[in-house]
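Ticket #4471: structure export looks truncated?
Reporter: QA, pipeline team
Priority: medium

Steps to reproduce: submit the single chain below to the structure queue and open the exported record.
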Amino acid sequence: MPPKRSRATPARPSAPRQAASVARFEATVVPGLESLARREMQRVLGRDVHWFPEERGALPFSYAGQWAQLQRLNTVLAVFLVQRFGVPRPRALLGEEHLRMVQAQTERVRSRFPAGTFQNFYLSAAGSDSAVMQRLKEELARRTNLQPGAEEGDLLLRLRPAADGSGWELLLRTTPRPLATRAWRVCNMEGALNASVAHAMALLTRPQPNDIYLNLGCGSGTLLIERLAAGPARRAIGCDTSQAALACAEENVAAAGLAGKAELQPWDMGALPLPDGSVDALTVDLPFGNLVGSHHQNMALYPRMLAEAGRVARPDARFVIITHEMRLMEQLLPQFPMWQLETTLPINLSGLHPRIFLLRRATNGE
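Actual output as written to the record:
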């Protein structure tokens, strides 16, 4: 007798997938690093990002993915949520409908962090002392239960006219601090490099896990830490002749959770105890001659550094340099044919206009 067939259990209808919520954002970047930041954003955010025409220092985009991914961006300064209002003047934002929209957007940002993360807010706008802006700040304080604060406010809002003249845009920073303000920076030094610039420089070395990486004049460790944030290395070395700098870097390395992965050495960048052709990638934030060093000192330091870096670099090694002494570098590079100039990136760094030089070590036959 054939076995009795069991009646198949009817399949439960699957719940309809919810459409991803698309929001408009703007990433602010160090002017000059737009292309590098865009490449990182494309890699981290993937297919969920859609681009709008970029501007100097800003990358507008829409995004339908997880907001947590936005906090993984290392080459941008900050990410802002953008809300457009089709109103002719900011006064219209004081209407109840628009105020509720502003309140909803602030809650959208705040809800992604533990309670109490945001203590104050700052509204940046032209005419911020006008009666309209003062009323808007009062309404924001009342509806958010946050106190008006300084420019470093936890909840940062920017109000500006829309570029196409169709209304006004409110931008809310999606994090309580800029992304470029790293949690690992527990020790700071005058002239320390912006972390997002350091990360961009690390990416320019095309980091590989087998790299022997050397950060000359490591200072407080920014370039060293950001190189390891970009990926592992067989050996990551930061060197400096200043004991104070090495002690500061040690604190930051530990705060970044990289103790044991990064070496700190009291080496002179012009006399390195390393074999010829032993280093795969190098970076250096050279003294600008402003806050640190002087032009006279740089005239002696730069050629020593280029010669010694050329000795320890293997053929095809990439060397990424940032300096404000552009003329000095341009004069020196022809004197060191072992270094081939791949590209230069002029950037705007808090009113200074340094340049990033990407060099490649010539092979023995060149």
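Status: closed, not a bug. The export was complete when the record was re-opened. Leaving a note from the reviewer for reference: Helices lie at 34-45, 96-110, 131-144, 195-204, 222-229, 243-255, 295-312, 326-332.
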